[in-house]
Amino acid sequence: MENKVTPAWQKGLILSLIIIVIGAGLHLSGMSQNTYAQWSQNILFFAGIIWACIDYAKQKQGEVTFGNVFGFGFKVTAAVAAIVAVYSILAVTTIFPEMKDQAIEAARKSMEDNPKLNEEQIDQALQMTSKMFVPFMIGGVLLGFALIGAIASLVGAAFAKKNPNPTPFNQ
Prior knowledge:
The chain is mostly helical. The chain contains six helices and no strands. Helix content is about 75%, strand content about 0%.
């Protein structure tokens, strides 16, 4: 009798909804530009992927390989990245349109602290960033989640309990 395994998309949906709620809460509380608050989402995502990997191996009763568990973790990562990317587009364009202006203003403050940049260079950089904000944001979300998810999947696959000698009859 084979155990029912929760699909990767389902775990990804649950994890992404939690990340979205935290992100919206950070924005509404005015803490969305706080670096430490932003890392809370990444830490939660990292831990969630590790949990998904370990739970997958447990649901399969250890009859998995390192590659199986890593692949499952990365599927969860892909689901989370896709859902959060779609949410991010909606958040910046319709739900929280002021989010873009806040991010541009934070970038301006950061650039003004750099003595090598003059006002003209800052304005040019921010104009380009403003025009390309959504593609930059999507790229950042996808690349960031892929990197963190790959590392978390490796860690999760390493910690997942695996049966050292699975027989071909059990697979």
